[in-house]
Write a structure and sequence with these properties.
Layout (H helix, E strand, L loop, with lengths): L1 E2 H13 L7 H11 L5 H8 L4 H8 E2 L9 E2 L5 H17 L1 H11 L6 H25 L8 E2 L4 E5 L4 H13 L3 E4 L10 H7 L5 E6 L3 E3 L7 E3 L2 H14 L4 E5 L15 E2 L5 H12 L6 H7 L1
Parallel strand pairs: 5-6, 5-7, 7-10, 10-11
Antiparallel strand pairs: 1-4, 2-3, 8-9
């Protein structure tokens, strides 16, 4: 299980590195994390008596000059400042266009809306996340600050159907939900867009099966996994972290050198892979019924 503040920090980092077409997702993720029930008491205290619109009407200074020259007279008292920014993040998440216009008005630096969003993130949201954590941790009753991992497990696979189905059925036996991309509607999305749309999972299993052939110049041809599988392996390692990705290799494959040490589990025909996968899931915070594992192995 991952510390809630780690997830908040990850959402802020994702927002910091996002583009105009992608900033909404980490922004909404951040707002959702800040609404966690373990933070409810602190949030109620921080926002008590604060009317965000009234505050902005009173403290936003209009110069009548260039875009970006207006300013906000932020509260100097920590509790009020955190409450105002917390409500502002909520408003941004419910209306991303408002964040773009807010940035254009108060943080404008060029003719790109994204520069305003980046400035808000760097000058307001990042300091808020730091100070908010300090405030919460100094509160009288520290919340649990832990989120249960999602019960959805993404399966990255190549063309081999048997390993894919075996992993999916095992995941379901553990009481979890297997996400297989080709079973989901395309809705006009490209492959990577479809991966992103279904990537809000707690764990990913990557099946490296010998579906392609390839080799370095001057070397013998070797079996290798499909290139999209390698791409998605990297995507989920980056998104979830190495501890939440388990790569299962079937047979003797060419593995990119960058993945040595990550791809170290073997998908064998005798079912021993189930115990190894179960251990990885347990280490990632899942409750594993080992009676089910032993019966399935």
């Amino acid at each position: 299980m991952k510390d809630l503040f780690t997830q908040i920090n990850n959402a802020v980092l994702d927002l910091q590195s996002s583009q105009l077409q992608s900033f909404e997702r980490p922004l909404k993720t951040l707002a959702k994390l800040l609404r966690h029930t373990d933070l409810e008491t602190v949030n109620t205290e921080l926002t008590a008596g604060i009317d965000l619109q009234a505050f902005l009407d009173e403290h936003a200074k209009e110069t009548g000059g260039m875009l970006g020259s207006d300013s906000v007279d932020w509260p100097t008292e920590t509790r009020e400042y955190l409450g105002v920014v917390l409500l502002l993040i909520e408003k941004f998440a419910s209306d991303p266009d408002y964040m773009m216009n807010f940035g254009h008005r108060f943080f404008y630096s060029d003719n790109k809306y994204m520069s305003g969003i980046n400035a808000i993130t760097g000058q307001v949201i990042i300091p808020f996340a730091r100070d908010y954590k300090s405030y919460v941790m100094s509160a009288g009753e520290a919340p649990r600050l832990v989120i249960q991992p999602s019960n959805e497990i993404f399966i990255v696979h190549g063309r081999a159907e048997s390993p894919r189905e075996a992993v999916a059925r095992f995941i379901e036996q553990l009481g979890l939900k297997a996400i297989i991309l080709n079973e989901r509607a395309n809705r006009g999305m490209t492959l990577i867009e479809k991966v992103e749309a279904h990537s809000n999972v707690g764990f990913a299993v990557v099946l490296l099966t010998p579906d392609d052939l390839g080799h370095l110049v001057g070397e013998a041809v070797q079996p290798r996994a499909r290139q999209n599988v390698i791409l998605e392996l990297g995507y989920f390692v980056g998104k979830l972290g190495r501890a939440r990705v388990c790569a299962l290799q079937q047979g003797d494959l060419e593995i990119p050198s960058d993945w040595r040490g990550i791809v170290d589990e073997v998908f064998d025909g005798k079912g021993a892979w189930k115990q190894r996968l179960a251990k990885e899931l347990e280490a990632a915070g899942y409750v594993v019924d080992w009676n089910v594992v032993m019966k399935a192995a």
